[in-house]
Write a structure and sequence with these properties.
The protein is α/β, with parallel strands linked by helices and about 425 residues long. It contains 15 helices and ten strands. About 55% of the residues lie in helices and about 10% in strands. The chain has a six-stranded parallel sheet. About 15% of the residues are buried.
Amino acid sequence: MQSTNTLLKRIVRSSVHPFAAPHGMKKDLFPLSRTLSLSFCLKQDKLCNPSEKLDLDAWKEVMKSGLREEVSEMVPEHKEPSPLAGAREILEMWRLAGRSVPENITEEQLKAFTECPSKSAQKKYLKFLYLKELHKKNDKRKMEEKRERRLEIQEQGSKTDETKRNSFICFWTNCMDRAYGWRAAQSMIFGQPLVFDMSYEKDMSAREVTNAVRQLVLSESFNRRSVDPFHIHFCNLKNDSLYQKEFIKHYREAWGKLLVTATEQCYTEVFPKDKLVYLTADSPKVMKTFDHNKIYIVGSMVDRSIKTGVSLARAKRLGLETAALPLEKYLLWNTGAKNLTLDQMMHILLTLKDTGDWKKALEFVPKRKYCSFVGKPIHELKKNLNLINMLKLGKTREEVQKQFAKNYSKKLMQK
């Protein structure tokens, strides 16, 4: 057995040494040091220098450092979550929990959500955005349904009659738009000015500003379609304010072509003070008739919390005359504040300008706020009622008052 092993070793040595000798590996067939010999190039048939050797340890370190750099480039750095990202995660959790949260929310709306002072305010703001998005979806759905119906009607028949009618409607609307535009252009030269005070942005929230601008858009459309429109002035309208941003959202490219006057100046700088009258519900003076020579000012404010005296204080600071609509004089008031919306004020002023009739003008006051319209002042009606009671009972006024006091005291005792 040993003889066979020794024989095999000799055969291997005799077969390996001739091939290893040309390459400088006669003695060290398996070298102990970790080096790599560069082989000769097969394509060019040239022998490589045996002295050109590469250290494997250094080569491994170079390869490891390059791998680390690649891994560091591939793996992004961990950034701390921003407050807006945290707010988005909270909204996503609330949406999954079934709360009233809008599906799409912009960066501005998300920023306004984070700036809300309390959790209840955040919920109210999200509900407002949710309802707004819901209304938009419903409007879009209705428009699609109308379009589908229109297509069905066109497919069913009478295409010629339909096209004739549509062409007539388009022609009619174009003519009316031109007529309305001509009236508005004439009002800018010859019309009576009507001022909207746009200096109440700080007294309102973003939601109230959007409601105010929506009412102003309605007021401008009503005024444009009237027989004798006002020349509308938006005074104290600052650039890049919330008012202006909302106006641009509504009108878009038509904002620059609108037949109104928008200025950053105050109305006291544009008009003489003796002609200005500030219409406010807090004024002690009641408006009796509509004066065509006066310039009326309406505060562009939607006040949900009913901050009384804000517009009156501003008018007093500027030294302007104030007036209030005679709501108590002609209406048997039920409940609620006597503040009206801006489009209702526009309807009332346009009707007074055209007719001068308070009964027609005050029809635009919501019916839920009053019982009925009276032709005479209420204090005169009370006198008439006292006279009727005196004639029916045959008693004097003092006796009637005493009887009323007794009945009132009995009711208090029963309570």
